[in-house]
Amino acid sequence: MSHAQTAATATAAPTPAAATAAKADRLVLADNESFLMPLDDIKNVHPSYPPDLLAKQLPPRTVCLRVGIDEKGAVTVVARAPASEFCATSAEPEFLAVSETAARTWKFDPALRCVFRNAKDKERAVASCDGGKGIPQPVTLVYRFRFEQVGGKPQVHVIGG
């Protein structure tokens, strides 16, 4: 897998040479810096559809979780994400429980803030820290777990990160 460059909420302790945070929960990058998302381990398991709910033949349900990942790639926080148009909070508690249990076992290669000598070196790196210094960063990502039954068979899709 490769580091994806999508938006994430990142926290970092600002240093004089580092980017400064506009808010405590947002990382602001300098012109000579880039950000690489954490890579999830291929062994990370998805939750299973709760067997007790299969017979109910429920319509699709979605659970959203905030997953905190530290600078070593370990999961430090798993919590329900706030409700949004993509994340309803009305799913049965069993869906939330299996999602939280799975997410707590996940491992990652950490997110990286790449610091380069200048903006041109950054442009040459193209989605990597090549030619710069990779500084591991803690991040919080939102994952969406969609539980559904298709043709009578349970399916769980994990979206996000």
From TrEMBL:
Organism annotation: Lysobacter arenosi
Top-level taxonomic group: Bacteria
Protein name (record): Uncharacterized protein
